[in-house]
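*** Residues and shapes ***
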Amino acid sequence: MATNENKHPAYDSTRISVWSRLKTEIFQSDFLAPMDVDLQDVQFTRRVSVYRLMLLLMLTSVGTIVIESLLFAPLTASIIWVSLLGWLLLAATALWLHRHSRILVPPILALGFNIGIVLWASAMGASHQTLWLFPLMIGLAGLLPTSVALIIGMTTLCIFMWTEGLNREPQELAQTAALFATWVISLAVMRLMTHQADQLADLALSDPLTGAYNRRYMQPQATRSLADYQRYARLSSLLMVDIDHFKLINDSFGHAEGDRVLKAIVSLIDNRIRGVDMLFRLGGEEFVILLTEAGALTATKIAEELRISISKMETTVGRRVTVSIGVCDVTLAESAEDWLTKVDEAMYTAKQQGRNRVYTLQSTSTPDAKISSTLPIWR
């Protein structure tokens, strides 16, 4: 879950510093992974829309440089060829994104390349490039984290002022100042809109009672984990957690006490899984945990620790609460639906064996992972 930042994982993980978090945002973001990142996930919808619009803007700006240099103000051959090649690459990127919804050129690289061409053309005397610079900088706020967008934007403005020179007419300086103010305001507005969009996404994908992710969000995450295994042999496991005799708690103590038990169990689980792991509420007293980079052996250990911790948990109902947990790793799944069905069977087996226990579904044969023989070179 993403609602609790202070994790106490059941297995080792390193603390993330501010610099490490910034490096993750820049260098390990899915928006930096070329060609092979599927953008159908709901979290990417907004940024993909911004990227499509920015590609059109970048195509227009680079095309203007090529046309202006050829017809009106001839520039050096080097900038003409670089601009032409850049336009062809951006056009191919736009076509690839339109047809396959996949990244060909990462946004930060495409935008940086385009701003570089615009600054280059502006320094060499192209007359229309100032008009393109600030819309491109506004796109920084939609494509990048705010801190990164601010750093790149300030650097770009400093380079622009240096290339244009400080000995200019007051009217030109006032125009530049107005454009800069527009960019800062746009950055703030974009940040506010992003925050509101993230809040709406959280409401759509989370359970209002417990804060866990809901069933709607579980399907694409399970599908992605299955694809990661089939392509890169990355293990992951599902844990299905069911509270034993939960109906008796509701009947004996009321639904309000039952809700407190649900929230207490979610809080306990959330504090014992890593930030990359995800907790989903299927409905009622059933929960699913997706453990990333964890096979059946590790997942069983985690499940056993969670079972013991929950059985020792203090509750307001005056009785011990136990859970039955089923474990199934990705090697046994043929599809996301099949994976969920098998972990559900494992959970019911745990109940049939007496409840308050963990049952791990074991493979009866060597699974065919269907792993690609050739991995992408950028991996």
